[in-house]
Specification:
This protein is an all-alpha fold. The protein folds into 2 domains: about 425 residues, Ammonium transporter fold (Orthogonal Bundle); about 45 residues, no CATH class. It is built from 21 helices and 4 strands. The protein has a two-stranded antiparallel ribbon. A two-stranded antiparallel sheet has the order 3-4. β3 and β4 form a beta hairpin. It is globular and about 60 Å long. The N terminus and C terminus are likely disordered.
Length: about 475
Amino acid sequence: MADPMNATFAEPAAEPTSFVDTGDNAWQLTTATFVGMQTMVGLVMLYGGVVKKKWAVNSAFMVMYSYAAVMIVWVLCGYRFSFGQYMLPFWGKPGTALGAGFLTIQANLYEAELAPNYAMSTIVYFQFVFAAITPVLIAGSLLARMNFMAWVVFVPLWHVLSYTIGAFSVWGGGFLFQWGVLDFAGGYVIHLSSGTAGYVAAYWLGPRLLRDRERFVPNNTIFVLAGAGMLWLGWNGFNGGAPYAANTDAALAVLNTNICTATSMLTWTVLDTIFFGKPSCIGAVQGIITGLVMITPGAGFIPGWAAIVEGLFAGSVPWFTMMILARKSSLLKKIDDTLGVVHTHAVAGFLGGIFAGVFTMRKLAAEFGTLLPSNGLIQGGIGQVGKQVVSALFIIGWNIVMTSLIMNFIRLIGIPLRMADEVLEVGDEAAHGEDAYALWGEGDTFDESVHGWYGYDRTTHGEKKVGPPAAAPAAEAKRLETATV
């Protein structure tokens, strides 16, 4: 009998939809779209709004490039490395996910022994959006100085050499999966790995310009809040889609996600108010993110009361490492992690994985179909916590080594990791020839040959199209000539 995993270009079966549960299929495609919107809407807005005005275009563009690049690499080799048949304890057998014979058979995560009731094309897309968001989270550590061409090379290399290793090891049937390590929806595979990789890449990249690092005011706080809101709601798909079906475990995961996130946001806000005298919108966003990350490794394995406990830790431990420890530790101050990804994703992801080993209940894990050999610590499963720690150390160690190798390889082939200082001074206009906000008359030089002129004279009744303005007085003309971006 032919191996369906290798039927890359085979014709589809005569009745390819006979196995499809339309409810599960619709839920899975919907949750995948939610996760995709987290990246293409939520993080585009959040990154584009949280940086200085001069970096809004570059930051958002890094997100969109990464999504597109991972899509192509994913179907060419990434999916089969992550969820294909066994090749190595940490890597699946290579192959594409493009052939009709492969995409129309019933979904099957072969080594993980899961067979959802829909086509392979659904599971390929669902797992893609998780793969796509991970390097975007790394970008949060590198904003406002990484050379865009270096980013172009970094994303596919890191995806193949790091993300797929963690995905197969923990999810796809690799050695950590077989050992019984728990990671419901990516606390280790996505957040611990991206938080670690971002911090390591920031070390090799070096810091932003001193004045940018000392004063990095968001250019649009409302965009930041809207982006965070999209992340929060999109996480219903992030965790709700992890059981691969529209079942009770999905509902539990969605509820726990919202409980933990709300608790974390409120905790962070209270701490900001107590220690700094004012509640901070940006601080609340950090609390939202840490809550979402913390709950992810165990969202469908734990009871609701445990989600509240995790939320309290999510809003306090990363708050302490970011707001107190990072300002006192010479090591943390030396490495310029632009958005504090090591705190919001690595610290929160690590703790969330440990808590999964503490609060997981076998009955709830059984709903997911995991190979959990014992209960969590609260039900006597002492060994599960140890497994969670060991797997976290593997993810951290692999990403330290591989991210370092990739960054130095990019430098070795002659691509500068950083933008030139003169580009860093100007920002988007120098890097891309574009500006996020065309607000003339605020010190920006208006170049008619580049920007054109289409104006309207609203002083008369109705609207009258007019041409370029009359020549400016001599003093104003001189000011415009010397104005800087």
